[in-house]
Amino acid sequence: MFSTRKIRIFDTTLRDGEQAPGIDLTLEQKVRIARQLQRLGVDTIEAGFPASSEGEFFATKRIIEEVGDSVEVTGLARANKNDIDRGIEAGLASIHVFIATSDVHLKYKLKMTREQVLDRIYESVKYAKSHGLIVEYSPEDATRSNVEFLLQAVKTAVEAGADRVNIPDTVGVMTPFKFQELIKKIVEVSSGRIISVHCHNDFGLATANSIAGVVGGAGQVHVTVNGIGERAGNASLEEVVMALKKLLNYEVNVKSWLLYDTSKLVSELTGVPVPFFKAIVGDNAFGHEAGIHVHGVIENPLTYEPMAPEEVGNFRRLALGKHSGIHGLRKILEDQGIYLDDEKLKEVLQEVKKIADSGNKVSAEDAKRIATRFLTS
Ligand SMILES: CC(=O)SCCNC(=O)CCNC(=O)[C@H](O)C(C)(C)COP(=O)(O)OP(=O)(O)OC[C@H]1O[C@@H](n2cnc3c(N)ncnc32)[C@H](O)[C@@H]1OP(=O)(O)O
Ligand SMILES: CC(C)C(=O)C(=O)O
Questions:
Q1: Domain 287-376: CATH class, spelled out
Q2: What is the pLDDT of residues 303-334, one digit of tens each?
Q3: What dotted CATH number matches 8-270?
Q4: Is 118 within 8 Å of 154 (Cβ atoms)?
Q5: Which residues form the Pyruvate carboxyltransferase domain (predicted)?
């Protein structure tokens, strides 16, 4: 399925990402990440939750001062006057107001009736709009809400003036086909407002569900760098962006070649390592050891890579091990200035495999050392 529709990228690394246990960024660290997100080209930066602490308040304020001229900066607020006022005091021109719509949240957490929640949606969105803000409303736990009530909540937010409505899969229980259908229904009652999706990764489906939401009609996706966030995390920015661009041909503002550096920066500042096998930005995302693959990639990278590493700022890494073949070994040695005939290469390869079979790693330098013996013998 192909489309040229433009999809907004709403980055919540500094809000939902930072909410994860063990991640507490300083003001300076938040500002560094915000600057990188602005360079990357996201459409909205959710800078934090200004009412939650002094630090969050001042970080939001500084981020607006630093990058607010060139990118929309928003902040999270509960559906109450105090949180919205705190956002306004921090200087926000855009606010993300949320209140849950699922019965389990209403009964046990909010202790409110459905009617009270609808009133609260209307009042809080209207209040924020009356201060001239761009308002995005999220019915938290939308995907476990009664669908009729969810549609009522969305209509209420739209009537109160919400500019965008975001549909959160708060505990990650959606499957792609189900979510696509739900988003279609939401779009039908939203009077042309941008519909957004916010997916959590509890079943490893956050990226798939986000894409399904877009196919269902969403015009914006909430993401975090490296997929950090509550519990199993959020939909990862790099996966969503590249899937939208490369697999479905949607238009996205993000400069994909800055993805790897952005991932490294967020990893460094949060202290959360990027998994080796992480799609797009993992160190093995363009890694090859198997002889058949390495041969193919040397002839033409398209054989075993769905995109070029440079497109996302990552690197191709050719490794040696028990699965290596002659073509790969030749390339690794020639890159280091070592040229051997096929007979000698085969002997070096046998040694490489012997080392690997005994459970040891073989680096390019190890191969060079072995090959040097053959050069001089
Ligand atoms: C799905 C999400 O990610 S939602 C965002 C979650 N993020 C965070 O919680 C991070 C920031 N949070 C905080 O710093 C604090 O929780 C604060 C400042 C917001 C509130 O702190 P406290 O006043 O101490 O309350 P606490 O966090 O224990 O409880 C939450 C209160 O907010 C209420 N509440 C929760 N969500 C909403 C909402 N969307 N709208 C209005 N009220 C809400 C709860 O019912 C509870 O109210 P109560 O105090 O009257 O019982
Ligand atoms: C506030 C909302 C969007 C949220 O973070 C969630 O439901 O996961």
A1: mainly alpha
A2: 999 999 999 999 999 999 999 999 999 999 99
A3: 3.20.20.70
A4: no
A5: 7-260
